[in-house]
Design brief:
7-stranded mixed β-sheet; 14 helices; Rossmann fold; RNA-binding; alpha/beta; Ribosomal Protein L25, Chain P; disordered N terminus
RNA sequence: UGGGGGAUCGUCUAGUGGUAGGACAAUGGACUCUGGAUCCAUUGGCGAGGGUUCAAAUCCUUCUCCCCCAGCCA
């Protein structure tokens, strides 16, 4: 564990970079980049890539660029650019002055394309999209040359200039690299470099009506920025020969593309398409719904950047497909929150308790530690009075084995307060539901200690009825029931695995009065319940709304489960 | 039946010829004014077969399984 803080664990990319450094490749520079397309919100899978790229650079005294890969004006929006910048910053990374856009290079890219045309390495094709597909061949059959493949470089140059000038309709022509229509790698069968697309670009407006494709733009953007290690996900392995081809033909700075396996997490989905579908079909309230694996969702849920960074380090980096247990993410979160969250008492499902022998009208301010893990966090005062609320599930009229909480005749400790004994139970005559408990307290146990040394098995959290604040609490659970929600063979889609109980809203909660002036997004441990944070969107001074970030480990729940099984 | 990748405890990941290690999960115990935290222990793995070697997760070989690729998306 201490190793995490000092020497980073080895992974194959760290090893490659270490070897490059040893061989003095790139004169010892390490420059990486995180290149999102601004057409969606960042999620935990992107966080893996962000941590990888920024950490690799930082560990080696290098820099990491943030570059928006904005080559497709019909899909991209400014809203996404802002959210991506915010998320990267929130995660704790700083691109400094290295904020770039592929669209910054459109003019240079055009010049590179012209050079390839002049060298006879690119040509304008006038086949339709449909025809191009047919000419491409299949996985097992080679493609065939387009009838336009033999155009002279003069003709190609003229056509390409006129494409740029806007003389043709969308789709009338494309610029293609002239490589090999019989290549077993489909990417090398004369890939498209430019297409005509009359759309307003969020940065270049209507200055262009031709836009470069990913394969052409990406490698050259990396090259222009002096990137040394271009790290991407596995599905681009087949694109690497093309990445290398453009840079080789143009004789420019040649970064090394390295591919790693993208993150998969149990009980959620991380594909952009599926995430969009959840938002669009209103299975969640938006991109920042606290159940979403998006950075904005995790933030609103109460996750910390430290926890996410720790997680990204612990999952490692490799090339095999993998599915990480979401329990690891939750572990990183709890470990971080346990150390820094102040403890408070909140009753989620209140049950009224009257302390019969406590003087009516009396109020005591009892001292409570804010965090047993960190005495420096100090103490606070909690009011105690004759009428209290405890958690409904902390009382059982007929307690099962190993139930250490309150029951008729049984004595328990109220945290930071007194030992109390249940003397009678009041029930609703019709339903039989327990509506109120009567207890007596031992005035000699103030603060929760007994001088005679007698022990109690259980300690309960509570609030004073007259002093408690009302609050709404949202309990979140995994979005999906199955570990890996995928399309089934019978055609039912991944949404069939949605957890119907992923959100439970409790509106009658009572929290201790010290929470009156909580700051937005501040995080607490509700004693014996879990970690909670104030909801940044729906909470207001008049209505406190808390999100459950994570539960505490619940040993009692395990015991109960085991008992049910017999 | 084309090409490119990948297989190590339940999960993730180290290990590049010399006793297969860590983390999460699980289980048991200690401790505890949170059935939390902490601490200790236990369980459990090299996809399969053949070969080379004193010695193989690692080298050779055959096989099996999984992932990706036929956008004018990235």
């Amino acid at each position: 564990m201490a190793q995490r803080d000092s020497i980073p664990a080895p992974n194959f990319i760290r090893n490659i970079i270490a070897e490059d450094l040893k061989a003095n490749k790139n004169e010892g520079r390490v420059i990486t980049r995180f290149p999102p397309e601004p057409n969606g919100y960042l999620h935990i899978g992107h966080a893996k890539s962000i941590c990888l790229n920024f950490n690799l650079a930082a560990e080696n005294g290098g820099t990491c660029h943030l570059r928006f890969d904005d080559t497709n004006p019909s899909k991209e929006e400014i809203e996404y650019i802002e959210s991506i910048k915010k998320d990267v910053q929130w995660l704790g990374f700083n691109w400094g002055k290295h904020l770039y856009y592929t669209s910054d290079y459109f003019e240079k890219l055009f010049d590179y394309a012209v050079r390839l045309i002049k060298d006879g390495k690119a040509y304008v094709d006038s086949l339709s999209a449909d025809e191009i597909r047919k000419y491409r061949g299949t996985l097992t059959e080679p493609g065939k040359d387009s009838p336009y493949r033999g155009r002279s470089s003069g003709e190609n140059l003229d056509l390409f200039e006129r494409m740029r000038a806007g003389e043709y309709e969308d789709g009338a022509h494309v610029l293609r690299a002239k490589i090999d229509m019989a290549s077993p790698n489909l990417n090398m069968r004369d890939p498209t470099m430019y297409r005509i697309r009359r759309a307003v670009h969020h940065r270049t407006g209507d200055r262009w009506c031709i836009y470069p494709m990913y394969d052409f733009a990406h490698c050259l953007s990396d090259s222009i920025e002096g990137i040394t290690h271009s790290i991407c996900t596995l599905e681009f392995e087949d694109n690497r020969p093309l990445y290398d081809w453009f840079l080789e033909e143009l004789g420019v700075h040649h970064p090394q593309q390295i591919e790693f396996a993208r993150l998969n997490l149990t009980h959620t989905v991380l594909s952009k398409r599926k995430l969009i579908e959840l938002v669009k079909d209103q299975h969640v309230t938006g991109w920042d719904d606290p159940r979403m694996p998006t950075i904005s969702g995790l933030r609103r849920r109460g996750y910390t950047p430290e926890a996410i960074r720790d997680f990204c380090e612990r999952i490692g980096v490799a090339k095999r497909d993998s599915m990480v247990d979401v329990a690891l993410l939750e572990h990183c979160l709890r470990e971080n929150l346990n150390k820094k969250s102040p403890r408070v008492m909140a009753v989620l499902n209140p049950l009224r308790v009257v302390i019969d022998n406590y003087p009516e009208g009396q109020v005591e301010e009892l001292e409570a530690e804010n965090n047993p893990e960190d005495p420096d966090m100090g103490t606070r005062k909690v009011p105690f009075s004759r009428e209290l609320y405890i958690e409904q599930e902390d009382f059982r009229e007929d307690p099962p084995k190993k139930f250490f909480r309150l029951a008729p005749g049984r004595e328990v400790r109220l945290k930071h307060a007194y030992y109390v004994t249940c003397v009678s139970v009041i029930k609703n005559e019709k339903t039989g539901a327990v509506t109120e408990l009567h207890c007596t307290y031992d005035s000699e146990t103030r603060g929760g200690w007994s001088k005679d040394g007698r022990k109690v098995k259980g300690t309960l959290h509570w609030v004073s009825a007259a002093h408690a604040l009302k609050a709404e609490v949202r309990l979140y659970d995994h979005l999906f029931l199955k570990e890996n929600p995928i399309e089934a063979k019978d055609g039912t889609d991944f949404k069939a695995d949605l957890n119907p109980d992923s959100l439970e809203t409790l509106t009658r909660c009572r929290v201790e009065p010290s929470l009156a002036d909580v700051q937005p997004a501040s995080r607490y441990q509700f004693l014996r319940q879990g970690y909670f944070c104030l909801d940044s969107a729906d909470s207001s001074p008049g209505l406190l709304v808390f999100n459950r970030t994570a539960t505490l480990r619940d040993t009692w729940a395990k015991i109960q489960k085991a008992q049910e099984k017999g």
